[in-house]
Amino acid sequence: MTAFGGVEMGALAARTRALAVLRVRSRALAVALLPAAAAVILLVGGSTGHLVGGGWDVLRWVVSVLALLVLLAAAGVALVVARAEPAMTPTVTVPEESAPELYRMVRDLADRLDVPAPSAIALTPDCDSWLEDRTHPLHGPPPVDRDDDGLPGLGDPARRRSAVAAPVLVIGSPFLWWMRVGELRAVLAPVVAGTGPSAHPDIAAARRFIRGLDAAVAVASAGRRDPLSRAACAGLGWVSRLLLRSCRRHATEMERGVAAAAAERAQAVDYGLRIVAQEQVGLAYAGWDRLLTRVALPAWRMGRWPSRLDVGVVAALTELSRRDRLAEGFASRLGERPACDLLEEPGVVDEAVSLLAARLFHGGPAETRPDWSPVGWEDYPEEVVDRSWRTDAARLHRVLDTLGVRRTGAGTAPGTDGPTLARVLDHLTTPDPDPAPTLAPPTVTDADADPGTHPASGTAPADTHAPHADHATPHPAYADHDAPADDSDDLAGPVARRGAPDASGDGHAPHGDHAAPHPSYGDHAPYGDHAPHGDHATPPPPRADHHGTPADDEDDDDLAGTTARGAALAAGLSAQLAREEARERPVGAGLPSSPPGPGAGTGPDAALWDDRALPLLPLQPPRTGREILTAHITAMVCCAAMDTVGAAPGLDWLDGPALLLDGARTADLAPSVLSLVETGDPGPLRAWMTELGIRPEKPVRLV
Asked: Which residues share a beta bridge with 201?
């Protein structure tokens, strides 16, 4: 697109679409006033002697009452649309005193682009950047805009309108730690350029109207108990959805026009460097996704949250650069100044972002407490990997106790009744007397849910499944980034990539030309133009229990290829995991405390979003019974390796927990465990253990 009279064509198209949205609002107001206009005509006609008679009198009363009801309903809808709090993206605000150089860089960039500077800067634990309007009265006093100019080139009338507060610039925290200063400036150029169109009164009014309708739909969806409130919410929801459908096409084209105008304006700023920086966007997303699903998620499930996730993403991306031939030149960038140097206290900001990530992706509490404490990367192998393996192994043996499996396995010394790997192998490989018996999984009591107590016996049908997976396998798009065969993931199980939130045209400036993924990462592109929207982003529904539901059928199909004893053990583990998580699931209640120190203003903006439905963005779907059983057997094998041959827990930045022997990762363990789970054949696993010298008959230490 080219400029016309000093104005980008995209900006003109955006303003045209904004006026179309406002016309929808005007038509809705006209429809609401139509009965009142008819009532006025009838009343005036009666008073002047033109519309007289019994029929006209009845009609006047009917139309007047109808007009009054319609006006009251319209006033109620308008009041809700105007006052309902729009959903806001959870972020960590960065005060100017905590990052003066970052603010200076953004303002210089805005001056070069001849657009208003963003009113504030915030960080999000994701690989994305956008503009967000936070001028609603319920979000606090609007920030003072340092540049009250309207859209440049649209004439004096636009400039004489009331100034629109500039939006907040939201930056993905992985960009700050992985990108260099020049790369970050190049990536932010098309985003900051969006403040120009955003400042135009017509575009701002259209966006406020759409956000208000979206918030009104959320209010109507909340529902009420009494019939009158339910009826009012139903009417509010119908009207709001109708108006949203009428505005949808115009709002989408408006946002596209804003994005086109921003991209066109930003072409003159660091164009060559921005092409190189786009490669870093795709690389950062790939490493961040692997770090969250492989490294952070196991820690979150253990009640620990890594306090330096952004530092970890640098290590993960450096390792990814080493493994990927396409990224060989990227590691040389590390000698340049990182963008996190623009922060006064990067450690404080990283800790706040890491806690917010744990809340969004896992649903953890808002602040540190005894069962939810930070963990450093140097303590991760001992505090997370070793503890998670021994916890899973202990759970495995508790379920075996409830199934009545004898404590001593074949080849165990007399008098030895400790937890051994041989006990597990013997149980899963002993031929069943009935080829297809129906085994009921055990009932798991509250005492069983406590790793430190001894389980009680008994059996009962299992009715739940654990909602998470412990280990993950690479997405197919990551196939080129894995290590050679002797360095592959020995602890991984199937998992799906975390879902990206849907983009919506509700007021965020798109990214312009930085939304393209790195060519080597397939569909692992940045999230697009928008981040999740508070309580409007709902997690997937929980798995159904065993009452003939589709989830039950899927799990039955998953266990159909396993042995009968393996299926029963998997069902028992699923039941116990579900009960433990129901008992110990972190509650995202309470407001977070601001970290101390120079960055005391940094912290999750809990006042701006509803955290009653955490996690907002769960990373993985629920595990199947096969995956649960495989993970627990793998943990037991790793415990035996640590206690008999001196292996050690380790951390792989791309694959998460790793078993180290003499400082090197062990060979792939997953196929051997799957052979035992699916066919009851312990041969491959025993051969693997014999090669390493692991003795399955030796008792292991559990938590």
From this structure: none
C-alpha angle with apex 375: 373 to 378, nearest 5 degrees? 165
Q: CB–CB of 496/502 below 8 Å?
A: no
Helices (H) and strands (E) in the chain, counts: 22, 11
Q: How many CB atoms lie within 10 A of CB 687?
A: 10
d(CA 470, CA 478): 19
Can you give the pLDDT at residue 484? 34
Is the sign of the CA dihedral 209, 211, 214, 216 positive or negative? Answer: negative
Other Cβ atoms within 10 Å of 198 Cβ, number: 27
In tens, the pLDDT along 543-572 reads 333 333 344 445 555 666 678 888 999 999
- DSSP assignment of 490-506: SS----PPPPPPPP--S
Q: Which helix (H) or strand (E) holds 244?
A: helix 227-266
User: Under a CB-based contact definition with an 8 Å cutoff, are residues 492 and 484 in contact?
Assistant: no
What are the C-alpha distances in Å from 122 to residues 126, 252, 600, 602? 12, 25, 14, 9
Backbone phi and psi for residue 275, each to the nearest 5 degrees, phi listed first: -65, -40
First to last CA, the chain: 65
Name the percent of the chain lying above pLDDT 70: 68
Mean pLDDT for the stretch of residues 671-678: 90
Say how far apart CA 697 and CA 421 lie, in whole Å: 6
CB-based burial, 393-415: b 16+ in 10 Å, e otherwise: bbbbbbbbbbbebeebbeebeee
Residue 155 CA to residue 177 CA, distance in Å, equals 42
- C-alpha 256/C-alpha 252 separation (Å) is 6
d(CA 287, CA 319): 9
Residue 106 host element (H or E): helix 100-113
Q: Which amino acid is at 129?
A: S
**pLDDT tens string 379-394:** 999 999 999 999 999 9
| Ordered strands of the 648-652 beta sheet | 648-652, 656-661, 664-665
Q: Which residues pair with 665 in a beta bridge?
A: 660
Helix, strand or coil, per DSSP, at residue 472:
coil
- CB contact set of 155 (below 8 Å; sequence gap of 6+): none
User: Hey, what long-range contacts does 368-372 have (CB within 8 A, 24 or more apart)?
Assistant: 371/303, 371/584, 371/586, 372/303, 372/304, 372/305, 372/586
**Is the pLDDT reported for residue 666 higher than 60?**
yes
Give the residue among 349, 263, 341 at the shortest CA–CA distance from 307: 349
Task: Give dist(CA 246, CA 613) in Å, integer.
Answer: 29
* Token pair recorded at residue 698: 């030796």
Omega of the bond leading into 431 within 30 degrees of 0 (cis)? no
pLDDT tens digits, 144-180: 444 433 333 333 333 333 345 789 999 999 999 999 9
DSSP notation for 419-469: -BHHHHHHHHHSPPSSSS--PPPPP--HHHHSTTSPPPP---------S--
